Amino acid sequence: MNRADLRLVEFSVTKKVKSKKSKKSTSKKIKAIGYFHIWGTNADKKGNEKFFGLIEDANTGNLVEIDSKYIRFLTDDQVETLYEMAEKVLLADEQAEITEEAAIAVE
Description:
Layout: E1 7-18, E2 25-43, E3 49-57, E4 63-67, E5 71-73, H1 76-106
Antiparallel strand pairs: 1-2, 1-5, 2-3, 3-4
């Protein structure tokens, strides 16, 4: 499937983060954006069925299995807002690059 055919989702993952000062690791819940591929099921330790979604992380391209309760499908309005925010960031980066090149040319 092409990425254009996949639905955008917001998902949460728990990552271990090490503090530089104390060298202790703590768990931190991080939200990310990705592309939903397919539903699947796994059996937990007690033999109960657990649903998961196969999600492609939009930043890294890695496929991850996410528990269904940590997946939220984005509405069309939310997707449009996300694209508008990304476009603003890209335009700001482009403008900063042009300004930097102009400053170098003046020197």
